[in-house]
Amino acid sequence: MTERWGVFEARFAGPEDATFEATFTHGDRTVRVPGFPDGDGTHVVRFSPDVEGEWAYVTTSGAAELDGCTGGFRAVPPSPGNHGPVSVAGTYHFAYADGTPFRPVGTTVYNWVHQPEERYRETLEAVADGGFTKLRFLVFPQGGNHVGHVPDAFPFAKDGEEWDVSRIDVAFFRKIDRAVRDLLEAGVQADVILFHPYDSGQFGLDGLTAEQDAAYLRHLVARLSAYRNVWWSLANEYDILSRPEERWDEVFRTLQETDPHGRLRSIHNWIRLYDHNKPWVTHVSLQNGSAVAEFGRALLYRDAYRKPIVLDEIKYEGDTAERWGNLSARELVHRFWIATVSGTYASHGESYLVDGGTLSVVAGGPFRGQSPPRLEFLRRILEEVGGAGLDPIDKWDDPTYTAGIPRQIYLQYLGLDAPQAWTFRLPQGVRGERLQVGDRFAVDVIDTWNMTVETVDREFTLTSVERNTATADAEPVALPAGEALALRIRRIDVDPG
Amino acid sequence: MTERWGVFEARFAGPEDATFEATFTHGDRTVRVPGFPDGDGTHVVRFSPDVEGEWAYVTTSGAAELDGCTGGFRAVPPSPGNHGPVSVAGTYHFAYADGTPFRPVGTTVYNWVHQPEERYRETLEAVADGGFTKLRFLVFPQGGNHVGHVPDAFPFAKDGEEWDVSRIDVAFFRKIDRAVRDLLEAGVQADVILFHPYDSGQFGLDGLTAEQDAAYLRHLVARLSAYRNVWWSLANEYDILSRPEERWDEVFRTLQETDPHGRLRSIHNWIRLYDHNKPWVTHVSLQNGSAVAEFGRALLYRDAYRKPIVLDEIKYEGDTAERWGNLSARELVHRFWIATVSGTYASHGESYLVDGGTLSVVAGGPFRGQSPPRLEFLRRILEEVGGAGLDPIDKWDDPTYTAGIPRQIYLQYLGLDAPQAWTFRLPQGVRGERLQVGDRFAVDVIDTWNMTVETVDREFTLTSVERNTATADAEPVALPAGEALALRIRRIDVDPG
């Protein structure tokens, strides 16, 4: 018995070097699922059923012991808290399989899995307690600068000086398994980074051939993809790895072909953007801090790609000398709010020096910065929005930079201005339901830094709807002192549905 | 005898409804060139040789009179001023076939060709005298609002209420021919807009079927593509025409297959951007005024598309009520300079009411606004830059928004600030030649509105080059009063080549 979107696992004995797959059937449906070796002659298949009912399987293999094995299980309703995997919803947003909106407010600890046990646990707790909904981390350990700890396990055995990808180190991959499961338990999406350029000649894992990539991918996909919180991030700063772009296309295609669960796929850049319009990219993962340093930028990526935009690196809160690592907490929170009203999402990371030279974005540990509680506050605001998510209403011509769901709910972020008062005004836009004279709204004043929400004690009724703008004939709303305020404008004369 | 990149034309008699093509050969090369009917049983083939020497041709047709006709010509060196067709150079820029850089500073008169003769002439003179290097105009006449003149010719004959695209109106297409030739003579690129949504039910030319599109395209390509100044713009505001995106893909593919000269291809949007990463798009033609209303926006399109970015509609200088038609001249010129330091290009248009209701961007006529001389001034500045063109040097992290060619020449635009002084500072960036201590520069102060260039009467020698920034230990440069100043920073200790 396995719950829907849970993990069914079967184990078989067979020759060390055998390969096998299992075909799962449910009524007319069949799903081919790759198996993987898990050490000591044990082979494993993991499968996540997406519908309830009876599933049966049969294995196929060139090795007789692994061929023709049959079995089955019943998929039962999901337990509370299991909303299924996340996929793209409403073009620019995400939702769980059961329809619950998913709002990415992620963080990043690159070398998390490769830390000593106590540090690993501290990070997991920090991420979970911090309320982050996604964590980016590397499969291959990081080497070189900013790395203080050499891990005790590596993915492959060595053949002289060369990695032999056919000889998997099970201890290494079980650490990755555990990390994904620990995040699943904590309700956090695992943004698994498959390749990275931060090796500095220390381990040589940035120098695999295309064939070695494919063998590694087959193993990792077979091992992890049944976990419903897995997202595939092909690389961090892919363009620092000097590989032709076709090779990344090939990795995407291999993932598409071998992943029976079709988990989300993205790739993250240094200065050269991958063509995210390619069909195998499910959402756009970007590094570009400047895109959310000012209004009016990040939303251009939405137009270019028509996919969810996740700004996975917008520079880090921290105190390091590099310009990517010394944002103030206020600036980072400000950028998240700009991302929000741009109809995009952002990720957090901390760049404080720890352990005498390592960075917290590499090694993890408890958060030191001031932004996490403010980002959790933002996440709660986002989760209170029903529907797919917030889209810019009048994307290129709105001086109020309002995102929302037309005629339902809106967020206006006032940014670094600190106005004394706010006059009710909504953009009309050209998509979705049209604002009408007589529509009634409540207004909440949000202090994004002090994490307060105060509802204005009067209603606002639209008295004028022109081509681009709707206004209410009402006194301005007095605003509290301080910058980084936002307005939430909620329709109240209808059931928001 | 035809000059290289000129037009060779041959005419043949044959049945009205025949089709034919000619195969041109030069040594080992063969080029298949479609012919077109030109009325009264005359069929024409036009071909532009891209290499000098002897060319021969032979025709093929199902009609005996048009089959197996042979001939030839000698292609001689181009005359002065003939630099060949424009194509993409340096990823983000353009150059003529002889290597001369081409700097797009375009304008727009949609319904130009369909005006009375005197107005047609006035517009041509205004564009040429204004120094614009590209003109966007419609093939099909515009109907509905803002249109005061019903043209005297239409592209096809009518079969009852329906257009019969197989019956070309030669008088109509000869007007298009003439427009392209007139622009060629004036040294202006013809950005020919093949389809548009501004019909308002008046002519019905926005309702052709895919098959009718293809027949029209074959005729237009055969007729026009030999002119070296032709650019194909598939549509203005393509997404207002309610056609599936695949249909636009098909138009692009038809152009690719039928155009023997491979002229530039783009498509222009209303609010939904086409996927400009598709291989048949040669350069990105965009409508989005906000992209150049502030710094730091337009350059994001470069990353997304890795093609030249031409912002063909950034709102118009004018006095109309619509928000797309009432920019001040200062604002429009400002936006062109933002486009410039963003490593992109922009187009001009005027939206003044003329002829009792028509707009000048539709009907043309002499320019009424103040921006054209400032744009000609900008064009001269751009033409003084050698090399492919100006690229942002440190694209996401440069508070000076400097574009240039590393270690050679730079433009910094100070925008709407009006600082009293400027301190020498250059970004280093991560691409191209590295700035070195000791590099020597001259600085020109440019007043973009008053159209003056004043060279600072001292040299600047780099005394410090850090990771991201190079500075000279020198007194600040006093700046003249006024906003919209720019600095041109020229390396002087080497031959710029």
UniProtKB/TrEMBL annotation, chains A, B:
UniProt-listed InterPro entries: Apiosidase-like_cat_dom, DUF5060, DUF5605, GH, Ig-like_fold
Where on the tree of life does the source sit, at the highest rank?
Answer: Bacteria
Domain DUF5060, which positions? 2-61
The record's Gene3D superfamilies line, in alphabetical order, gives: 2.60.40.3950, Glycosidases, Immunoglobulins
Q: Which Pfam families match?
A: Apiosidase, DUF5060, DUF5605
**Residue ranges constituting the Apiosidase-like catalytic domain according to the UniProt record:** 92-344
DUF5605 domain: residues covered: 396-489
GO BP annotations listed: carbohydrate metabolic process
Supply the name of the protein.
Uncharacterized protein DUF5060
